[in-house]
Amino acid sequence: MTTPKHVAVYYTGGTIGMQQTPAGLAPAANLASLAAPIFQEYSHQLQCDWFICEPLIDSSAITLDNWQTWLNWIDSKAADYDGLLILHGTDTMAYSANIIALARPQLSIPVILTGAMLPLAADNSDAPLNLHTALAAFSLSGFTQTAIAFNGQLWPAIGSSKISTERAEAFANPQFGTLAQWSATDGWFNTNLPVGTPPAAPVRYSISSSARIHCFTLTPGANLDMITASLTHNPPDGVVLQSYGNGNTPADAGFLAAIRHLDQQSIPVLNISQVLQGCTSAVYAQGHELRTAGIINGGRCNLETALAILTLAASNHWNKEQIENLLHQQHLL
Question: Which of 164, 212, 243, 250 is the most buried (most CB within 10 A)?
């Protein structure tokens, strides 16, 4: 008889456990009892211990301090469990998945995040399928990644985004695709799991609550002046620039001067494409002056991944070379 895997379940809040209040939906603390029938179906495979975040939050209210608290929880449980399940609101789930994957890259156990578009207690809720997908993921042999389980899909954390507020298919990973698909009738299929690598020494990166990362999206018109003024008069600890196409921007003298000034101050500017399946690269002459101004090529980074990288870079004092090495390690370049 196979010994059940020991899984720690961390309920942070989010729609999956919400109940109606006079002000609208809000997180409630009784999710474990509501979800008990679903978890019972896996009792022969998984022994699950519940932990409740205090306070429970709507994920749109997440802070850098919350992330550090959750990383501390992961550190306190990883050695004693075969896997970690984090129940999270969908609004910022992809951001949290990216920060966990990058801040704790060698846990040697799977970390699965899931949530729901409708509360578990609601009619026609997507929560049961998402919980089934997440719990079934712990049966995947040799799987040790951080991933999002949603609507019968297992998405790698790096590169994932929330793509819908209207449909159960709320997440996707345009760059790296799905790791596997699950259904109640077929189990896991279309698996594309990473090949296992020898365990490395554990790496733990912290998050500073004072890290200030500014994110700007280029649009035609006057917003370039606003971006330039912000970079000049309110320099942050790092900048994510969502540029056009393959990383192109207007060759505006003031804007380029602001980028050069940040580079001289060793403030990283990570240039990513605003296209869902975009890749910044040295293709067009239009982007040449920006590249020579000192930006870092973000390659296939999406916004969630780029923000996580620069938050960790600012918190742990990484230089440009360390950021570029991480981009290579994550196959983003």
Answer: 243
